[in-house]
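Contributing new records

If you add data, match the layout below exactly. Sequence lines come first and carry their own label; structure lines follow with theirs. Keep one chain per record. Anything else will be rejected by the validation script.
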Amino acid sequence: MAKRVLVLNGPNLNLLGTREPEIYGAETLQDVEALCRRTGDEFGLAVECRQSNHEGELITWIHEARGTADAIVINPGAYSHTSVAIHDALKGVGLPVAEVHISNIHQRESFRHHSFVSAVAFGVICGFGVNGYRMALTALAEKLK
């Protein structure tokens, strides 16, 4: 049976491809989701992708993942830097978590240098564009063996 990975994208990631393409690139969220599904297929992972601009909805999906997923890839967007609640939800479900950021958050504004999610993630990938999702799924495939 394929291992199940929930890929969560936070606020404003629905604007990929049009929002600050000099930072986030030209790929759309649909492109990212297709990349995740192709990578999942390559490694025998069943990938489900979701995006929300609402913190509570992301938390609900994290809670639901306890019974429906084996791991989580999350790009929490700006919630990385503000949400203790997402940190607590990820910690509470006890699943392996890979954190992804398209841009290198450490080269940006100082308020982006800290992520509450990083403390509960087994790995953090930032600055590799949308290829970071592929890297995260590759690492999870190895971890879930």
